[in-house]
Amino acid sequence: ATGLKNGLFIYILRQFFRNMPRTLEEAAYIDGAGPFRTFLTVMLPGAVPALVIVFLFAFVWQWNDYFFTSIFMRDGTMLAHTLDIAAESYAHAMGTTLTGQYISLLNNTGMLMFVTPLLLLYAVMQRYFVESVERTGIIG
Questions:
Q1: N or C: which terminus of the chain has fewer CB atoms within 10 Å of its end residue's CB?
Q2: Where are the domains of the chain?
Q3: Is the model's pTM score more than 0.90?
């Protein structure tokens, strides 16, 4: 993700790390770990739910972002088209005319293809959502 979204990601991670118990960090220092070792072995594995949330936000925003991809694609043939333009060009290539039922079928198929990766990603990452919600109720 780019731009203003990075500020939200920093805020999410900052708040998550602020709510982690300070005793975990102190115990790692007592065991002889330095700051980097403490971060890599104690703090980062504990922040997996926050990292998953940041990853999912970034993925969904990039998945839905048309303008960002259009900046880097100089040739117009690689750009994504809206469903109506795609339906019209497909019907023209097939030599048929567009009817209401045909357009509706193409729109529904396109939306299914658009949403399916997001639903699969959510199904895989659902346990991290539950884990992060459970952690919000734990104090101290």
A1: C
A2: 1-69, 81-130
A3: no
